[in-house]
Each structure stands twice: as structure tokens, then as C-alpha cells.
């Protein structure tokens, strides 16, 4: 599995979000920015991302992920 495949899986589940994926093999750093995260606790945000990758995690195709999630406002305020 490569980063572009992981990104495609996330885009299918999290439409309207900006998604960045870095990594290779079975370890990835994932950044997702979207309104879908507004009002959600950090664990709820991660659950949304994990839901898109459950099959690949269960099969071992993805072993480790580092997930960072932001609303568009949070992303803008990082600068």
C-alpha cells in the first residue's frame, strides 16, 4: 500500500476534507482538515479517520498511523 492509496481511501470516506498523507510501507502520517471535525472531541475525530482505514488496519496492510485533524479555522490559526 502506498500513500496515494491511503489518501484515496480517506477521500472516499471524508468527502470535502483536505487530506495529506506521508509515509510508506505500513506506516503513515495523516493530516485531515475539514468542517466534519467541528464540535467533535479528539477521540471522535480519530474515529472518523480510523473508520475509513479499518479494513487495511485489520489486514495488516497499515500498521501504524499518526493522525492530526483540524477544522479549517484551526488550520488557519496555525500560521
Structure keywords:
single chain, 79 residues, alpha+beta, GMP Synthetase, Chain A, domain 3, 3-stranded mixed sheet, 44% helix, 27% strand, globular
Q: What does it look like?
A:
- With 79 residues, the protein is of the alpha+beta class.
- The protein has one domain: BolA-like (GMP Synthetase, Chain A, domain 3).
- Helix content is 44%, strand content 27%.
- The chain is built from three helices and three strands, in the order αββαβα.
- The chain has a three-stranded mixed β-sheet.
- Helix 2 links the parallel strand 2 and strand 3.
- Helix 1 crosses helix 2.
- 19% of the residues are buried.
Write the layout of secondary structure elements.
Elements: H1 3-13, E1 18-24, E2 27-33, H2 42-59, E3 64-70, H3 72-77
Parallel strand pairs: 2-3
Antiparallel strand pairs: 1-2
Helix pairs in contact: 1-2
